[in-house]
């Protein structure tokens, strides 16, 4: 089916079910209950799951397959956002104009940046991509390009947004004033009340989720294609690659461009949910985040980046919401002195301290679980199996490549 | 002519910082083969050593002075730093005034200790892992270190002035008959950087320890075969590199008020410096550091900026790209370092 | 005219003259061995043939075309395959995947983007790979990770990968170095078989005289960067100059 083998169809179905029923799956706790703060089924967060999923899937195509660690992918994210907002400004709020442009422009930038950076490999490559991203950040943050050509391009620190004075030449009389797809407004939501539960079905989320599914499907195809095989060959042994009559450079460049396009699409979708584009999206922290999502989920696996993106974005949201009051509630069962001590210990890691938690998580994953959640899951499954089934079963699974 | 020399001078202080950080990066890369993304954080921690010392020295107790009244008629509260009460007001205030240079002494043991802990506790376990893992784990460490500093010191820059005697400007051009007015502290910074760089090179050149380290940089396995405990020497080198970055940070505080993300800002540029200088080449790192610092300062001249707006912020990257395209090994890179 | 013509090749590294005045002609469908003591310049010569090094002077022609200045992948596409001293295979991939890659490279050239089609849909390529695995007696290992195999199997796989491209010239760089006796003999048998059954020219660099005399039709002895003698195996055996070059230095 769909040109995939059975295992991949199962995987795709699994991701599709997760994505399409996310409003239910992510809202397991009834409204108003104490656990409701752990719900994640609201539009803003679900959109981020899908969008960062795309970003991480694209990053994984490069890093997971070829092993080239780019530290500058956030640059393409920013480019995608700028492209979409510019289409809002020039044409109208229909996201259909901006998104393809976001993909094309980020692809062009990826071609240029990749052409230079891929002349070196290893650390050099990482440093070069990082330097390029920082340069793009500096250019956007101070609107250098705009100052050079004499009109604003990125609108500097303020960020790019739509003003009433913008041309918007395609804007019709009854057209919505926020991003939409042929009248389907991204912000709109449909609510379903079932008992104490409230489920939110958001247009923007479903749009992003469907794009994400298409992109996921595409990445499965790339993984299973001769092209994907060549990319894994580059990671495995570059010497044998060239002595087998293959030129590694166009392969790496091609996947770098594809991966940049994924990032550009993700950035474009960000602007499709919220019609703004700012330079901070290009900062090295954002590049680091996608690296973390990918390795946390499982580098080089199909499902890993999606899981990683969801995991990080979920905990970012939860951790940022928790404050000292919430902590006091949690630890209220303890004696007073101990309660205060616990709050004091946990305090640096929550709220604005999320980045500290993120950094520690980053180190822990690299040190103890280089294969990420997917490998963790496999180890757990193998352990359970060995507990239950005995030795003969797990010898079989050890030679299977990771999914 | 005056303006020209002034721009060169202007580039020297930033160039010194680049050179010092790049020197440490190259030492660590050359000896341990590790790319340390947390090296910028060491620079930042050095700067916060200076901040901490100055805060410590300014710790005060408050007494009410009954002889003086404030405008509401209450007795005036006078803050007296402990240090003034211990050493007398005159010596005490001098000590407080000289807190930044004093912080050098304060920072060296701290930085060396942090370097040792980092190397023994974390980096050591990554020698045999792929470079990507080394980058990732040190990157995570950089985030953690900078968030810890942010937690204790806040997100805003903390001004930390130079001693009064060194904080003015001087007409240093007078010696050669030109009119160049330049902040004294920046000259101090440059001289300090030159001193540190000179000491590191002398140390590597003239001591047995340095000779072994240099041999190790060239060929680690052979040196290991000679039965020399190269690992311990490399730990010490890591401590030295950490101290160099830290001292660069300490002395930089009066030039730019330190904030928690200064490390990363400098790190990215220092990496570019290392790449331009040639990975693994110590003289290359120093040379490229100063060259790029000076270049940046020329690009920020108004004449240049009017012609090419914003060029000062990206000139280093542009130069780096051109150099890498024309001389892939950098200015002084050796063959065979990081070729694959 | 041989299929490979090396003329007046010289190469200097700083103060060391690694190769000088190397003239060598490898006849089509022969097995030509290049032997010599350590440091004689064998590896340097080989690297000049495959594009890793460019000689300072002279010319290297393969089938009437110069190989100098071309990258390794271009030289491979001309029809020269190389087997390395330590087997260079794709360790992270399965044996089957290892075998597919050279066949794709042969069919599609140095770069072609088949990013959407599934590998499994490439029936013909898979058949060829299966056939080659059969020939190498490795069909039962096809799902194994290549890195997990024994040294001898890795060598077999590497040779199989090279052969699957149907090269006109196969370069072997000490193919039995570091192997146990049994593995060495297996490799010799394999190479003999290849030599007999295929239209292929083999150039082999080797230390082990047993390997050389089992395989070679023609032998060139290299000493101090220059060819000492070129002759048939039986004449080389008794040649006093060769004995001197070998026994004088090593043993």
How would you characterize this protein structure?
The complex is a heterotrimer of chains A (403), B (340) and C (251). By secondary structure, chain A is mainly alpha-helical. Chain A is 65% helix and 5% strand. Chain B is mainly alpha-helical and 340 residues long. Chain B is 68% helix and 7% strand. Chain B has 13 helices and four strands. In chain B, the strands form two sheets. Chain B has a two-stranded antiparallel sheet with strand order 1-2. A two-stranded antiparallel sheet of chain B has the order 3-4. In chain B, a hairpin with a 5-residue loop joins strand 1 (60-69) and strand 2. In chain C, helix 6 (181-197) links the parallel strand 7 and strand 8. Chain C is globular, with a radius of gyration of 19 Å. Chains in contact: A-B, A-C. The interface between A and B is large, with 44 and 40 residues.
What is the gyration radius of chain B calculated from CA atoms? 22 Å
CATH topology of chain B: ABC transporter involved in vitamin B12 uptake, BtuC
Please tally the helical runs of chain C, counting DSSP H or I stretches of 4 or more residues: 9
User: What's the CATH H-level superfamily name of the largest domain in chain C?
Assistant: P-loop containing nucleotide triphosphate hydrolases
Ranges of chain B where pLDDT stays below 50 over 5 or more residues in a row are none
Number of domains of chain B: 1
Which architecture name of chain B does CATH use? Answer: Orthogonal Bundle
Globally, the shape of chain C reads globular
Q: If you average the pLDDT of chain B, what whole number results?
A: 84
